Amino acid sequence: MLMPDPAATNKASAARAWVKDFQARAERTPLGQGVISALVIFVVLVGIVWNLPDSPIRAIVVANLQPVANVAGLDQNWGVFAPNPPRQLTYLTVAVTTRSGRELTWRRPASDPVIRHYWVYRWRKLDENLARTDSIRKPFAQWVAGQLTTAADPPARVKITARLVPLVPPGGGKIGPAQDLVLYDEVFNQK
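User: That's the sequence. What structure does it adopt?
Assistant: Structure tokens below.
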């Protein structure tokens, strides 16, 4: 077993102590307090600029502030629902038929009441992404088929169906009927 080099350990400890001591000294002096305040104000301003609506001026400023925004973690887009908020809820059902003819159904799992909101949100995002993105449907369908079947009774067919339920628009109004769409349908080779 290799033992840590005592000299390297002492150097690391000394470096940590120097940084801690430097920070404490900087926080006590008016110059240090001014520099820290200026940095905080600068980062807040970068955050404000980063979240401005698109414009030619914003594009120029953002390009120059990109490194600061990356370091501060401000390079995220907070326009979660804008400009197109969701207009429907998507509920997926995956039907798996085994070679013996059994019909198995997969729906998103039930959640724990304590973490329900986060659990449901995660699965709803999966539903939305599967409804929008063709390329992830086949791997998902095959994963579900693998979860529901056994080697003794393998899948013969897997079908993903989405039920699209319209949401009431803000301020009320009339909504259309729910739609059922087949997103993916695969028949497995009989080997």
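The beta strands are 88-98, 103-106, 155-166, 179-187.
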